[in-house]
Design a protein that fits this description.
It is built from ten helices and seven strands. By secondary structure, it is an alpha/beta fold. It has a single domain, classed as NAD(P)-binding Rossmann-like Domain (Rossmann fold), CATH 3.40.50.
Length: about 290
Protein backbone atom coordinates (compact mmCIF):
# COMPACT_ATOMS: atom_id res chain seq x y z
CA UNK A 1 0.00 0.00 0.00
CA UNK A 2 1.37 3.40 -0.97
CA UNK A 3 2.25 5.72 1.88
CA UNK A 4 0.27 8.89 2.36
CA UNK A 5 2.51 11.76 1.23
CA UNK A 6 3.75 13.96 4.05
CA UNK A 7 3.47 17.73 3.95
CA UNK A 8 6.73 19.61 3.55
CA UNK A 9 5.24 23.03 4.28
CA UNK A 10 7.43 25.08 6.60
CA UNK A 11 10.51 22.86 6.20
CA UNK A 12 14.00 24.27 5.56
CA UNK A 13 16.13 22.76 2.80
CA UNK A 14 19.63 23.27 1.43
CA UNK A 15 20.43 22.37 -2.18
CA UNK A 16 24.09 22.37 -3.21
CA UNK A 17 24.89 23.18 -6.82
CA UNK A 18 21.40 24.66 -7.04
CA UNK A 19 22.00 27.60 -9.38
CA UNK A 20 21.21 25.58 -12.50
CA UNK A 21 20.24 22.18 -13.84
CA UNK A 22 18.95 19.41 -11.58
CA UNK A 23 19.71 21.34 -8.40
CA UNK A 24 17.71 24.35 -9.51
CA UNK A 25 14.79 22.13 -10.56
CA UNK A 26 14.78 20.44 -7.15
CA UNK A 27 14.89 23.83 -5.41
CA UNK A 28 11.92 25.03 -7.44
CA UNK A 29 9.94 21.85 -6.73
CA UNK A 30 10.64 22.06 -3.00
CA UNK A 31 9.58 25.71 -2.95
CA UNK A 32 6.27 24.77 -4.57
CA UNK A 33 5.74 22.37 -1.66
CA UNK A 34 6.07 25.24 0.80
CA UNK A 35 9.73 24.61 1.68
CA UNK A 36 12.08 27.52 2.38
CA UNK A 37 15.16 26.77 0.27
CA UNK A 38 18.77 27.86 0.64
CA UNK A 39 20.81 27.43 -2.53
CA UNK A 40 24.58 27.05 -2.32
CA UNK A 41 26.62 27.23 -5.50
CA UNK A 42 30.12 28.17 -6.58
CA UNK A 43 28.37 30.74 -8.78
CA UNK A 44 27.24 33.03 -5.99
CA UNK A 45 25.41 35.43 -8.30
CA UNK A 46 23.62 32.51 -9.94
CA UNK A 47 22.62 31.15 -6.53
CA UNK A 48 21.20 34.53 -5.54
CA UNK A 49 19.25 34.82 -8.79
CA UNK A 50 17.86 31.29 -8.45
CA UNK A 51 16.79 31.98 -4.86
CA UNK A 52 15.21 35.30 -5.80
CA UNK A 53 13.07 33.47 -8.34
CA UNK A 54 11.74 31.23 -5.55
CA UNK A 55 10.62 34.21 -3.49
CA UNK A 56 9.77 34.17 0.19
CA UNK A 57 12.71 33.80 2.59
CA UNK A 58 14.79 31.67 0.21
CA UNK A 59 18.52 32.34 0.22
CA UNK A 60 21.24 32.05 -2.38
CA UNK A 61 24.90 32.16 -1.39
CA UNK A 62 28.30 31.28 -2.79
CA UNK A 63 29.54 27.85 -1.71
CA UNK A 64 32.58 25.79 -2.63
CA UNK A 65 31.62 22.36 -1.28
CA UNK A 66 35.26 21.26 -1.31
CA UNK A 67 36.04 23.88 1.36
CA UNK A 68 34.74 21.92 4.34
CA UNK A 69 34.99 24.68 6.99
CA UNK A 70 33.15 27.00 4.60
CA UNK A 71 30.52 24.31 3.95
CA UNK A 72 29.88 23.95 7.70
CA UNK A 73 29.77 27.74 8.09
CA UNK A 74 27.27 27.93 5.21
CA UNK A 75 24.96 25.47 6.99
CA UNK A 76 25.38 27.40 10.25
CA UNK A 77 24.34 30.62 8.51
CA UNK A 78 21.33 28.96 6.88
CA UNK A 79 20.15 27.67 10.25
CA UNK A 80 20.77 31.04 11.89
CA UNK A 81 18.67 32.83 9.27
CA UNK A 82 16.03 30.25 8.38
CA UNK A 83 15.85 27.74 11.22
CA UNK A 84 16.91 24.11 11.75
CA UNK A 85 17.87 22.13 8.66
CA UNK A 86 15.19 19.62 7.63
CA UNK A 87 16.39 18.57 4.16
CA UNK A 88 19.89 18.49 2.67
CA UNK A 89 20.24 17.76 -1.04
CA UNK A 90 23.85 16.92 -1.91
CA UNK A 91 23.56 17.71 -5.60
CA UNK A 92 26.82 19.47 -6.55
CA UNK A 93 28.87 17.35 -8.93
CA UNK A 94 30.91 17.39 -12.13
CA UNK A 95 31.37 14.91 -15.00
CA UNK A 96 34.57 15.47 -17.00
CA UNK A 97 34.89 13.04 -19.88
CA UNK A 98 38.17 11.26 -20.72
CA UNK A 99 39.59 7.73 -20.94
CA UNK A 100 41.16 6.98 -17.57
CA UNK A 101 44.66 6.61 -19.01
CA UNK A 102 44.42 10.17 -20.36
CA UNK A 103 42.75 11.80 -17.36
CA UNK A 104 44.96 14.29 -15.48
CA UNK A 105 45.39 13.68 -11.76
CA UNK A 106 43.91 17.12 -11.11
CA UNK A 107 40.65 15.99 -12.74
CA UNK A 108 40.58 12.84 -10.60
CA UNK A 109 41.17 14.85 -7.41
CA UNK A 110 38.56 17.43 -8.39
CA UNK A 111 35.89 14.75 -8.87
CA UNK A 112 36.79 12.94 -5.66
CA UNK A 113 36.54 16.21 -3.74
CA UNK A 114 33.28 17.47 -5.28
CA UNK A 115 31.39 14.28 -6.12
CA UNK A 116 32.37 12.22 -3.09
CA UNK A 117 34.20 13.95 -0.24
CA UNK A 118 31.75 16.86 -0.23
CA UNK A 119 28.83 14.41 -0.14
CA UNK A 120 30.41 12.55 2.78
CA UNK A 121 31.01 15.79 4.67
CA UNK A 122 27.56 17.17 3.88
CA UNK A 123 26.00 13.92 5.07
CA UNK A 124 28.01 14.05 8.30
CA UNK A 125 26.95 17.64 8.95
CA UNK A 126 23.32 16.82 8.25
CA UNK A 127 23.39 13.89 10.69
CA UNK A 128 24.92 16.06 13.42
CA UNK A 129 22.13 18.60 12.98
CA UNK A 130 19.19 16.24 12.40
CA UNK A 131 19.74 13.26 14.69
CA UNK A 132 19.33 15.25 17.95
CA UNK A 133 15.92 16.42 16.70
CA UNK A 134 14.92 12.95 15.50
CA UNK A 135 13.88 14.13 12.05
CA UNK A 136 15.29 15.09 8.66
CA UNK A 137 16.05 13.98 5.12
CA UNK A 138 19.43 13.54 3.47
CA UNK A 139 19.17 13.32 -0.32
CA UNK A 140 22.25 12.28 -2.28
CA UNK A 141 22.21 12.67 -6.05
CA UNK A 142 24.04 9.76 -7.65
CA UNK A 143 23.52 8.45 -11.19
CA UNK A 144 22.89 5.42 -13.34
CA UNK A 145 26.70 5.54 -13.49
CA UNK A 146 26.68 4.47 -9.84
CA UNK A 147 25.25 1.09 -10.82
CA UNK A 148 27.06 0.58 -14.12
CA UNK A 149 30.19 1.58 -16.01
CA UNK A 150 30.82 3.60 -19.16
CA UNK A 151 34.09 4.10 -21.04
CA UNK A 152 35.31 7.65 -20.61
CA UNK A 153 33.68 8.05 -17.20
CA UNK A 154 35.81 5.82 -14.97
CA UNK A 155 36.43 8.35 -12.19
CA UNK A 156 32.89 9.72 -12.37
CA UNK A 157 31.46 6.19 -12.14
CA UNK A 158 33.76 5.44 -9.21
CA UNK A 159 32.51 8.47 -7.29
CA UNK A 160 28.86 7.67 -7.96
CA UNK A 161 29.30 4.01 -6.96
CA UNK A 162 30.81 5.33 -3.73
CA UNK A 163 27.93 7.74 -3.11
CA UNK A 164 25.46 4.87 -3.43
CA UNK A 165 27.50 2.72 -1.03
CA UNK A 166 27.76 5.63 1.39
CA UNK A 167 24.02 6.27 1.34
CA UNK A 168 23.13 2.59 1.72
CA UNK A 169 25.36 2.39 4.80
CA UNK A 170 24.11 5.63 6.34
CA UNK A 171 20.54 4.40 5.86
CA UNK A 172 21.40 1.39 8.02
CA UNK A 173 23.22 3.51 10.61
CA UNK A 174 20.27 5.88 10.92
CA UNK A 175 17.56 3.23 11.16
CA UNK A 176 15.17 4.17 13.94
CA UNK A 177 16.66 7.66 14.35
CA UNK A 178 13.92 9.50 12.47
CA UNK A 179 16.46 10.74 9.90
CA UNK A 180 15.81 9.32 6.43
CA UNK A 181 17.97 9.01 3.34
CA UNK A 182 17.21 9.09 -0.37
CA UNK A 183 19.49 8.04 -3.22
CA UNK A 184 18.64 9.43 -6.68
CA UNK A 185 19.89 7.57 -9.77
CA UNK A 186 18.93 9.31 -13.01
CA UNK A 187 19.99 8.42 -16.51
CA UNK A 188 21.42 11.13 -18.75
CA UNK A 189 19.55 14.38 -18.22
CA UNK A 190 18.94 17.33 -20.50
CA UNK A 191 21.51 19.47 -18.73
CA UNK A 192 24.88 21.00 -19.50
CA UNK A 193 26.59 18.14 -17.64
CA UNK A 194 25.55 15.65 -20.33
CA UNK A 195 25.99 18.00 -23.31
CA UNK A 196 27.28 16.23 -26.40
CA UNK A 197 26.94 12.76 -24.86
CA UNK A 198 25.08 10.26 -27.09
CA UNK A 199 21.67 9.14 -25.85
CA UNK A 200 21.29 5.74 -24.25
CA UNK A 201 19.20 3.19 -26.14
CA UNK A 202 15.95 2.09 -24.48
CA UNK A 203 16.26 4.88 -21.88
CA UNK A 204 15.02 8.35 -22.88
CA UNK A 205 16.95 11.41 -21.75
CA UNK A 206 15.16 12.86 -18.74
CA UNK A 207 14.51 16.46 -17.80
CA UNK A 208 15.66 18.12 -14.57
CA UNK A 209 11.99 18.58 -13.73
CA UNK A 210 11.32 14.82 -13.96
CA UNK A 211 14.23 14.19 -11.60
CA UNK A 212 12.99 16.89 -9.24
CA UNK A 213 9.45 15.50 -9.19
CA UNK A 214 10.70 11.98 -8.40
CA UNK A 215 13.08 13.28 -5.72
CA UNK A 216 10.50 15.35 -3.88
CA UNK A 217 7.96 12.52 -4.13
CA UNK A 218 10.50 10.23 -2.45
CA UNK A 219 11.02 12.71 0.39
CA UNK A 220 7.26 12.93 0.91
CA UNK A 221 6.65 9.18 0.85
CA UNK A 222 9.83 7.86 2.48
CA UNK A 223 11.11 5.99 -0.59
CA UNK A 224 14.86 5.28 -0.64
CA UNK A 225 15.72 4.24 -4.22
CA UNK A 226 14.82 6.78 -6.90
CA UNK A 227 15.38 5.75 -10.52
CA UNK A 228 14.63 8.26 -13.26
CA UNK A 229 13.15 7.00 -15.51
CA UNK A 230 11.74 4.12 -13.46
CA UNK A 231 12.45 1.56 -16.19
CA UNK A 232 16.14 1.85 -15.26
CA UNK A 233 15.41 -0.13 -12.10
CA UNK A 234 14.17 -3.08 -14.14
CA UNK A 235 17.07 -2.94 -16.60
CA UNK A 236 19.82 -2.63 -13.98
CA UNK A 237 18.42 -5.05 -11.38
CA UNK A 238 17.66 -7.67 -14.03
CA UNK A 239 21.13 -7.35 -15.54
CA UNK A 240 22.73 -7.61 -12.08
CA UNK A 241 21.68 -11.26 -11.70
CA UNK A 242 22.64 -12.20 -15.26
CA UNK A 243 25.98 -13.81 -16.23
CA UNK A 244 28.72 -11.25 -16.89
CA UNK A 245 28.80 -11.70 -20.71
CA UNK A 246 25.07 -10.92 -20.81
CA UNK A 247 25.49 -7.91 -18.50
CA UNK A 248 28.21 -6.50 -20.71
CA UNK A 249 26.10 -7.13 -23.81
CA UNK A 250 23.21 -5.22 -22.23
CA UNK A 251 25.56 -2.33 -21.42
CA UNK A 252 26.84 -2.18 -25.00
CA UNK A 253 23.30 -2.49 -26.36
CA UNK A 254 22.32 0.55 -24.29
CA UNK A 255 25.03 2.53 -26.13
CA UNK A 256 27.20 3.06 -23.03
CA UNK A 257 30.38 2.36 -25.02
CA UNK A 258 29.60 5.41 -27.19
CA UNK A 259 29.87 7.88 -24.30
CA UNK A 260 33.59 8.35 -24.87
CA UNK A 261 32.80 9.49 -28.43
CA UNK A 262 30.88 12.53 -27.20
CA UNK A 263 30.87 15.74 -29.23
CA UNK A 264 33.83 17.62 -27.73
CA UNK A 265 32.80 20.97 -29.17
CA UNK A 266 29.35 20.66 -27.62
CA UNK A 267 31.01 19.92 -24.27
CA UNK A 268 33.72 22.57 -24.41
CA UNK A 269 31.95 25.20 -22.30
CA UNK A 270 30.91 22.66 -19.67
CA UNK A 271 34.35 21.03 -19.47
CA UNK A 272 35.95 24.46 -18.94
CA UNK A 273 33.51 25.30 -16.16
CA UNK A 274 33.99 21.90 -14.51
CA UNK A 275 37.76 22.39 -14.57
CA UNK A 276 37.33 25.59 -12.53
CA UNK A 277 34.69 24.25 -10.17
CA UNK A 278 36.65 23.58 -6.99
CA UNK A 279 38.92 26.46 -5.93
CA UNK A 280 39.76 24.90 -2.56
CA UNK A 281 40.53 21.54 -4.16
CA UNK A 282 42.87 23.32 -6.56
CA UNK A 283 44.86 24.50 -3.54
CA UNK A 284 45.15 20.89 -2.38
CA UNK A 285 46.27 19.81 -5.85
CA UNK A 286 48.90 22.57 -5.96
CA UNK A 287 50.22 21.57 -2.51
CA UNK A 288 50.49 17.92 -3.60
CA UNK A 289 52.33 18.88 -6.77
CA UNK A 290 54.76 21.06 -4.79
CA UNK A 291 55.39 18.31 -2.26
CA UNK A 292 56.17 15.77 -5.00
CA UNK A 293 58.45 18.14 -6.94
Amino acid sequence: MAKTPRSLTGKVAVVTGGARGIGQAIARRLAREGVTVAIGDLDGAGAEAAAAELGGRSLGMALDVTDRPAFAAFLDEVERRLGPLDILVNNAGIMPLAPLEDEPDASVTRQLEINLHAVIFGTQEAIRRMRPRGTGHIVNIASLAGRAGAPGLATYCATKHAVIGLTETVRAELRGSGVETVIVMPGFASTELAAGVPDLRFVPRVTPEQIADATVDAIKTGRFDVWVPRRLAVIITSAAVAPRPLREWVSRAMNSSKVVAADRRARAAYEARAAASAPHAEEVIAEEETASA
